[in-house]
Amino acid sequence: MDSIIQADLYRYGRLTGRSGLLKGWLDPGFRYMFLYRKVQKHKRWTIRGLYYRILKRIFTYHGYQINSDASIAGGFQLYHRGTVIIGPVIIGKNCSVSHNVTIGRSYRGGQLGRPTIGDFVWIGTGAVVVGKIRIGNDVLIAPNCFVNFDVPDNSLVIGNPGKIIHKINPTKNYIKDVLL
Fold first, then answer.
1. Kind of pairing, strands 163-166 and 155-158?
2. Are 80 and 97 in contact (CB under 8 A)?
3. Close Cβ partners of 18 (under 8 Å, ≥ 6 residues apart)
4. Is pLDDT at 59 greater than 90 in this prediction?
5. How many domains does the chain have?
């Protein structure tokens, strides 16, 4: 098993090995990420590449839609079933995304482009992160926030429109079960 898949699997209750993979497969978030990783690994027009792309497409019924061109580091976790839309963005290691979250590009305004999200970022239910922005490391984005501005490291974003509060280790009790 790839180390990146192992890091993802560990986020789902410290699961490891083949028995952990079987348990993890029961979780729709891990199952979708497993297929996403396989799509990333295999070229588009190979038999395995087509097979994993078809499976990934089938499993969108849980509401997950992650662009195959997105760059997501290991230890990524999808909480709960529900609409999660992630465009071709860059996401660091050990990040967590709740349901009803949109992360993508902005087509208008001053922040045209896609976000870059750092390591150890937790994004709450209903949050929207758009535009050519940078979300720093160890950032917690509270539920229902609209973020179209840069967020520095060690911050908490609350409200709509979002307000930045500097806080040391804001994701301490939110991001758990991490393989370093």
1. antiparallel
2. no
3. 1
4. no
5. 2
